[in-house]
Specification:
alpha/beta; D-Maltodextrin-Binding Protein, domain 2; 11 strands; five-stranded mixed beta sheet; single chain; 2 domains; globular; 338 residues; binds 2-keto-3-deoxygluconate
Protein backbone atom coordinates (compact mmCIF):
# COMPACT_ATOMS: atom_id res chain seq x y z
CA UNK A 1 0.00 0.00 0.00
CA UNK A 2 1.93 2.99 -1.31
CA UNK A 3 0.06 5.63 0.62
CA UNK A 4 0.37 4.12 4.03
CA UNK A 5 3.99 5.00 4.61
CA UNK A 6 5.64 4.48 7.95
CA UNK A 7 2.92 4.27 10.50
CA UNK A 8 3.49 5.24 14.10
CA UNK A 9 3.30 2.14 16.25
CA UNK A 10 -0.19 2.39 17.75
CA UNK A 11 -1.50 3.61 14.46
CA UNK A 12 -4.13 5.71 16.16
CA UNK A 13 -3.78 8.63 13.84
CA UNK A 14 -4.36 6.45 10.81
CA UNK A 15 -7.07 7.83 8.61
CA UNK A 16 -10.10 6.20 7.14
CA UNK A 17 -10.31 5.07 3.61
CA UNK A 18 -10.98 6.92 0.43
CA UNK A 19 -7.45 8.24 0.67
CA UNK A 20 -5.94 4.82 1.05
CA UNK A 21 -8.23 2.95 -1.25
CA UNK A 22 -7.82 5.29 -4.14
CA UNK A 23 -11.10 3.93 -5.50
CA UNK A 24 -12.75 5.22 -8.65
CA UNK A 25 -16.25 5.21 -7.27
CA UNK A 26 -18.09 7.66 -5.06
CA UNK A 27 -20.19 6.72 -2.10
CA UNK A 28 -23.03 9.07 -3.06
CA UNK A 29 -23.58 7.10 -6.29
CA UNK A 30 -23.89 3.77 -4.49
CA UNK A 31 -27.06 2.00 -3.27
CA UNK A 32 -25.18 0.15 -0.53
CA UNK A 33 -22.21 1.00 1.66
CA UNK A 34 -20.04 -1.56 3.38
CA UNK A 35 -17.98 -0.27 6.30
CA UNK A 36 -15.19 -2.78 6.78
CA UNK A 37 -12.98 -2.43 9.84
CA UNK A 38 -9.96 -4.28 11.22
CA UNK A 39 -7.73 -3.95 14.25
CA UNK A 40 -4.37 -4.07 12.47
CA UNK A 41 -2.86 -1.05 10.75
CA UNK A 42 -2.82 -0.06 7.10
CA UNK A 43 0.63 -1.56 6.46
CA UNK A 44 -0.59 -5.06 7.31
CA UNK A 45 -1.48 -7.58 4.57
CA UNK A 46 -4.89 -7.83 6.21
CA UNK A 47 -5.59 -4.27 5.17
CA UNK A 48 -4.25 -4.94 1.67
CA UNK A 49 -6.73 -7.80 1.52
CA UNK A 50 -9.54 -5.49 2.57
CA UNK A 51 -8.56 -3.03 -0.16
CA UNK A 52 -8.54 -5.91 -2.65
CA UNK A 53 -12.07 -6.81 -1.50
CA UNK A 54 -13.11 -3.20 -2.01
CA UNK A 55 -11.72 -3.14 -5.51
CA UNK A 56 -13.41 -6.37 -6.55
CA UNK A 57 -16.81 -5.51 -5.09
CA UNK A 58 -16.87 -1.98 -6.45
CA UNK A 59 -15.81 -2.98 -9.92
CA UNK A 60 -18.16 -5.99 -10.08
CA UNK A 61 -21.13 -3.85 -9.01
CA UNK A 62 -19.98 -0.89 -11.03
CA UNK A 63 -19.82 1.16 -7.87
CA UNK A 64 -23.31 0.28 -6.68
CA UNK A 65 -21.79 -1.20 -3.52
CA UNK A 66 -19.27 1.20 -2.04
CA UNK A 67 -16.70 -0.10 0.45
CA UNK A 68 -15.27 2.13 3.17
CA UNK A 69 -12.18 0.65 4.79
CA UNK A 70 -11.01 1.28 8.34
CA UNK A 71 -7.90 -0.05 10.09
CA UNK A 72 -6.08 0.25 13.44
CA UNK A 73 -9.28 -0.26 15.41
CA UNK A 74 -10.78 2.97 14.08
CA UNK A 75 -14.21 1.34 14.36
CA UNK A 76 -13.38 -0.46 17.62
CA UNK A 77 -11.73 -3.67 18.73
CA UNK A 78 -12.60 -7.16 17.48
CA UNK A 79 -15.35 -7.69 20.03
CA UNK A 80 -17.09 -4.36 19.58
CA UNK A 81 -16.93 -4.63 15.80
CA UNK A 82 -18.59 -8.06 15.95
CA UNK A 83 -21.28 -6.61 18.19
CA UNK A 84 -21.78 -3.83 15.67
CA UNK A 85 -22.24 -6.46 12.96
CA UNK A 86 -24.88 -8.15 15.08
CA UNK A 87 -26.71 -4.84 15.47
CA UNK A 88 -26.34 -4.00 11.80
CA UNK A 89 -24.43 -0.79 12.50
CA UNK A 90 -21.29 -2.07 10.74
CA UNK A 91 -21.16 -4.44 7.78
CA UNK A 92 -17.76 -6.18 7.71
CA UNK A 93 -14.95 -7.10 10.07
CA UNK A 94 -12.18 -9.70 9.90
CA UNK A 95 -11.25 -10.84 13.41
CA UNK A 96 -9.06 -13.73 14.51
CA UNK A 97 -10.93 -16.89 15.43
CA UNK A 98 -9.97 -16.41 19.12
CA UNK A 99 -12.37 -13.53 19.86
CA UNK A 100 -15.03 -15.19 17.68
CA UNK A 101 -15.04 -18.07 20.16
CA UNK A 102 -16.77 -15.73 22.63
CA UNK A 103 -19.75 -15.82 20.27
CA UNK A 104 -19.49 -19.41 18.94
CA UNK A 105 -17.29 -21.40 21.29
CA UNK A 106 -16.61 -24.13 18.71
CA UNK A 107 -14.20 -21.72 17.01
CA UNK A 108 -11.68 -22.38 19.77
CA UNK A 109 -10.86 -25.68 18.10
CA UNK A 110 -8.82 -23.89 15.42
CA UNK A 111 -6.82 -22.21 18.19
CA UNK A 112 -5.72 -25.45 19.81
CA UNK A 113 -1.99 -25.07 20.43
CA UNK A 114 0.24 -26.86 17.89
CA UNK A 115 -2.81 -27.98 15.86
CA UNK A 116 -1.80 -27.14 12.31
CA UNK A 117 1.64 -28.26 11.08
CA UNK A 118 1.75 -25.60 8.34
CA UNK A 119 -0.34 -22.96 6.56
CA UNK A 120 -1.19 -25.15 3.60
CA UNK A 121 -2.74 -27.77 5.85
CA UNK A 122 -4.68 -25.03 7.62
CA UNK A 123 -6.00 -23.80 4.25
CA UNK A 124 -7.29 -27.23 3.33
CA UNK A 125 -9.01 -27.84 6.65
CA UNK A 126 -10.51 -24.35 6.92
CA UNK A 127 -11.65 -24.28 3.29
CA UNK A 128 -13.08 -27.78 3.63
CA UNK A 129 -16.23 -29.23 5.16
CA UNK A 130 -15.46 -28.73 8.82
CA UNK A 131 -14.40 -25.13 8.22
CA UNK A 132 -17.70 -24.46 6.49
CA UNK A 133 -19.59 -26.17 9.30
CA UNK A 134 -18.17 -23.65 11.75
CA UNK A 135 -18.91 -20.70 9.48
CA UNK A 136 -22.53 -21.87 9.34
CA UNK A 137 -22.77 -21.66 13.13
CA UNK A 138 -22.28 -17.88 12.93
CA UNK A 139 -25.74 -17.49 11.45
CA UNK A 140 -27.39 -17.84 14.85
CA UNK A 141 -25.23 -14.95 16.01
CA UNK A 142 -26.48 -12.69 13.22
CA UNK A 143 -23.20 -12.88 11.38
CA UNK A 144 -22.32 -14.49 8.07
CA UNK A 145 -18.86 -16.04 7.79
CA UNK A 146 -17.73 -15.86 4.16
CA UNK A 147 -14.10 -16.95 4.15
CA UNK A 148 -11.00 -17.73 6.15
CA UNK A 149 -8.06 -15.42 5.76
CA UNK A 150 -4.73 -15.74 7.55
CA UNK A 151 -3.26 -14.08 10.60
CA UNK A 152 -0.67 -16.84 10.96
CA UNK A 153 1.53 -18.68 13.41
CA UNK A 154 1.91 -16.76 16.64
CA UNK A 155 5.33 -16.12 18.16
CA UNK A 156 6.26 -14.77 21.56
CA UNK A 157 7.96 -11.44 22.26
CA UNK A 158 8.85 -9.88 25.60
CA UNK A 159 10.99 -7.22 27.19
CA UNK A 160 12.50 -9.30 30.01
CA UNK A 161 14.53 -12.25 28.78
CA UNK A 162 15.19 -14.82 26.10
CA UNK A 163 12.53 -17.50 26.08
CA UNK A 164 14.01 -20.80 24.94
CA UNK A 165 12.03 -23.29 26.95
CA UNK A 166 9.15 -23.59 29.36
CA UNK A 167 10.90 -22.43 32.49
CA UNK A 168 11.60 -19.11 30.80
CA UNK A 169 7.86 -18.34 30.74
CA UNK A 170 7.82 -18.37 34.50
CA UNK A 171 6.06 -15.28 35.82
CA UNK A 172 6.12 -13.36 32.50
CA UNK A 173 3.02 -11.21 32.14
CA UNK A 174 1.79 -11.91 28.64
CA UNK A 175 -1.06 -10.17 26.89
CA UNK A 176 -3.32 -12.67 25.16
CA UNK A 177 -6.36 -12.21 23.01
CA UNK A 178 -9.69 -12.30 24.82
CA UNK A 179 -10.13 -16.05 24.71
CA UNK A 180 -10.27 -18.53 27.60
CA UNK A 181 -8.34 -21.25 25.83
CA UNK A 182 -5.44 -18.90 25.16
CA UNK A 183 -5.47 -17.82 28.81
CA UNK A 184 -5.50 -21.39 30.11
CA UNK A 185 -2.75 -22.47 27.74
CA UNK A 186 -0.46 -19.67 28.88
CA UNK A 187 -1.16 -20.47 32.51
CA UNK A 188 -0.09 -24.06 31.86
CA UNK A 189 3.11 -22.77 30.31
CA UNK A 190 3.85 -20.92 33.55
CA UNK A 191 3.16 -17.42 32.31
CA UNK A 192 0.86 -14.85 33.83
CA UNK A 193 -1.57 -14.11 30.98
CA UNK A 194 -3.73 -10.96 30.76
CA UNK A 195 -6.50 -10.70 28.17
CA UNK A 196 -6.64 -7.40 26.36
CA UNK A 197 -7.99 -5.93 23.13
CA UNK A 198 -5.35 -5.46 20.45
CA UNK A 199 -6.01 -1.72 20.39
CA UNK A 200 -4.61 -1.37 23.93
CA UNK A 201 -1.58 -3.59 23.48
CA UNK A 202 1.11 -1.19 22.33
CA UNK A 203 0.55 1.20 25.22
CA UNK A 204 0.44 -1.67 27.69
CA UNK A 205 3.87 -2.86 26.54
CA UNK A 206 5.24 0.66 26.45
CA UNK A 207 4.09 1.34 30.01
CA UNK A 208 5.24 -2.05 31.22
CA UNK A 209 1.75 -3.22 32.22
CA UNK A 210 2.64 -6.40 30.36
CA UNK A 211 6.07 -7.92 29.68
CA UNK A 212 5.14 -9.46 26.40
CA UNK A 213 2.66 -10.57 23.80
CA UNK A 214 2.36 -13.09 21.00
CA UNK A 215 1.51 -12.43 17.37
CA UNK A 216 2.84 -13.38 13.94
CA UNK A 217 6.05 -11.67 12.79
CA UNK A 218 4.18 -9.46 10.32
CA UNK A 219 2.18 -7.88 13.12
CA UNK A 220 5.18 -7.62 15.44
CA UNK A 221 7.13 -5.77 12.77
CA UNK A 222 4.44 -3.69 11.09
CA UNK A 223 2.99 -2.48 14.39
CA UNK A 224 6.46 -1.46 15.56
CA UNK A 225 6.48 -3.75 18.59
CA UNK A 226 10.29 -3.96 18.34
CA UNK A 227 10.33 -0.46 19.81
CA UNK A 228 9.08 -1.79 23.12
CA UNK A 229 10.10 -5.48 23.01
CA UNK A 230 13.61 -6.93 23.04
CA UNK A 231 13.19 -10.68 22.61
CA UNK A 232 11.41 -12.81 20.05
CA UNK A 233 11.12 -16.62 20.05
CA UNK A 234 9.72 -18.81 17.27
CA UNK A 235 7.24 -20.52 19.56
CA UNK A 236 4.74 -20.92 16.71
CA UNK A 237 2.39 -22.08 19.48
CA UNK A 238 -0.94 -21.29 17.83
CA UNK A 239 -2.05 -20.78 14.25
CA UNK A 240 -4.52 -17.90 14.02
CA UNK A 241 -6.99 -17.83 11.16
CA UNK A 242 -8.97 -14.69 10.38
CA UNK A 243 -12.64 -14.97 9.46
CA UNK A 244 -14.24 -12.57 7.01
CA UNK A 245 -17.53 -11.67 8.70
CA UNK A 246 -20.54 -9.79 7.35
CA UNK A 247 -23.52 -8.47 9.28
CA UNK A 248 -26.37 -10.90 8.61
CA UNK A 249 -28.86 -8.08 8.61
CA UNK A 250 -26.93 -6.33 5.85
CA UNK A 251 -26.21 -9.48 3.86
CA UNK A 252 -29.81 -10.68 3.93
CA UNK A 253 -30.92 -7.29 2.67
CA UNK A 254 -28.77 -7.52 -0.46
CA UNK A 255 -30.16 -8.81 -3.75
CA UNK A 256 -28.96 -12.35 -4.45
CA UNK A 257 -26.54 -11.43 -7.23
CA UNK A 258 -24.89 -8.91 -4.90
CA UNK A 259 -24.66 -11.52 -2.14
CA UNK A 260 -22.79 -13.72 -4.60
CA UNK A 261 -20.43 -10.92 -5.58
CA UNK A 262 -19.67 -10.10 -1.95
CA UNK A 263 -19.09 -13.71 -0.98
CA UNK A 264 -16.91 -14.47 -4.01
CA UNK A 265 -14.92 -11.30 -3.39
CA UNK A 266 -14.28 -12.32 0.23
CA UNK A 267 -12.80 -15.61 -1.01
CA UNK A 268 -10.81 -14.08 -3.85
CA UNK A 269 -9.41 -11.25 -1.72
CA UNK A 270 -8.61 -13.90 0.88
CA UNK A 271 -6.40 -15.82 -1.57
CA UNK A 272 -4.52 -12.62 -2.27
CA UNK A 273 -4.30 -11.84 1.46
CA UNK A 274 -2.99 -15.28 2.42
CA UNK A 275 -0.20 -15.02 -0.11
CA UNK A 276 0.79 -11.50 0.92
CA UNK A 277 0.65 -12.56 4.55
CA UNK A 278 2.96 -15.53 4.05
CA UNK A 279 5.50 -13.40 2.27
CA UNK A 280 5.33 -10.88 5.11
CA UNK A 281 5.71 -13.48 7.83
CA UNK A 282 8.70 -14.97 6.00
CA UNK A 283 10.39 -11.63 5.62
CA UNK A 284 9.90 -9.88 8.92
CA UNK A 285 11.78 -12.12 11.33
CA UNK A 286 14.99 -10.85 9.76
CA UNK A 287 13.76 -7.26 9.92
CA UNK A 288 12.97 -7.66 13.61
CA UNK A 289 16.54 -8.73 14.23
CA UNK A 290 17.81 -5.83 12.13
CA UNK A 291 15.79 -3.58 14.44
CA UNK A 292 17.77 -5.01 17.34
CA UNK A 293 15.57 -7.76 18.70
CA UNK A 294 17.27 -10.91 20.00
CA UNK A 295 15.92 -14.01 18.27
CA UNK A 296 15.71 -17.28 20.19
CA UNK A 297 15.01 -20.55 18.44
CA UNK A 298 12.83 -23.06 20.21
CA UNK A 299 14.31 -26.56 20.00
CA UNK A 300 12.13 -29.53 19.06
CA UNK A 301 12.57 -30.81 22.56
CA UNK A 302 11.45 -27.56 24.17
CA UNK A 303 8.47 -27.33 21.84
CA UNK A 304 7.47 -30.88 22.73
CA UNK A 305 7.62 -29.97 26.40
CA UNK A 306 5.27 -27.03 25.77
CA UNK A 307 2.97 -29.24 23.78
CA UNK A 308 2.78 -31.76 26.62
CA UNK A 309 2.10 -29.00 29.14
CA UNK A 310 -0.91 -27.65 27.25
CA UNK A 311 -2.42 -31.06 26.45
CA UNK A 312 -4.77 -30.95 29.49
CA UNK A 313 -6.19 -27.68 28.17
CA UNK A 314 -6.81 -29.26 24.77
CA UNK A 315 -8.54 -32.20 26.46
CA UNK A 316 -10.72 -29.93 28.54
CA UNK A 317 -11.82 -27.77 25.61
CA UNK A 318 -12.39 -30.83 23.41
CA UNK A 319 -14.93 -31.90 26.00
CA UNK A 320 -16.64 -28.52 25.92
CA UNK A 321 -16.63 -28.17 22.16
CA UNK A 322 -17.60 -31.79 21.54
CA UNK A 323 -15.12 -34.56 20.90
CA UNK A 324 -16.90 -35.47 17.67
CA UNK A 325 -16.23 -32.09 16.05
CA UNK A 326 -12.67 -32.07 17.37
CA UNK A 327 -12.05 -35.53 15.91
CA UNK A 328 -13.31 -34.40 12.54
CA UNK A 329 -10.84 -31.51 12.64
CA UNK A 330 -7.98 -33.94 13.43
CA UNK A 331 -9.20 -36.23 10.65
CA UNK A 332 -9.29 -33.33 8.18
CA UNK A 333 -5.71 -32.44 9.14
CA UNK A 334 -4.64 -36.00 8.54
CA UNK A 335 -6.45 -36.15 5.19
CA UNK A 336 -4.86 -32.86 4.13
CA UNK A 337 -1.43 -34.35 4.64
CA UNK A 338 -1.99 -37.43 2.48
O1 LIG B 1 -7.64 -7.09 12.69
C1 LIG B 1 -7.51 -8.21 13.49
C2 LIG B 1 -6.90 -7.84 14.80
O2 LIG B 1 -7.79 -6.98 15.45
C3 LIG B 1 -6.60 -8.97 15.77
O3 LIG B 1 -7.41 -10.08 15.58
C4 LIG B 1 -5.14 -9.25 15.73
O4 LIG B 1 -4.10 -11.26 16.36
C5 LIG B 1 -4.60 -10.23 16.73
C6 LIG B 1 -4.53 -9.89 18.17
O5 LIG B 1 -3.51 -10.28 18.76
O6 LIG B 1 -5.44 -9.27 18.73
Amino acid sequence: NENAGEEENGGNEADADGEDGGGEYAQEDASHTIRGGIGLNSDHPQYQGLLEFKEIVESETDGDIFVETYHSGQLGDDRSMMEALQLGSQEVTIPSTAPIANFVNEFSVFDFPFLFPDSETADQVLDGEVGQELLDMLDDQNMVGLAYWENGFRDLTNSEREVASMEDFDGLTIRTMENDLHLDAFRELGANPTPMAFTELFTAMQQGTVDGQENPYATIYLEGFYEVQDYVSDTHHIYSPFVFLVSKQFYDGLPEDYQQIVSDAAVEAGEFQREANREANDQYLQDLQDEGMTFTEISDEARQEMQDAVQPVIDEYSGEIGQDLVDRVYQAIEDAQQ
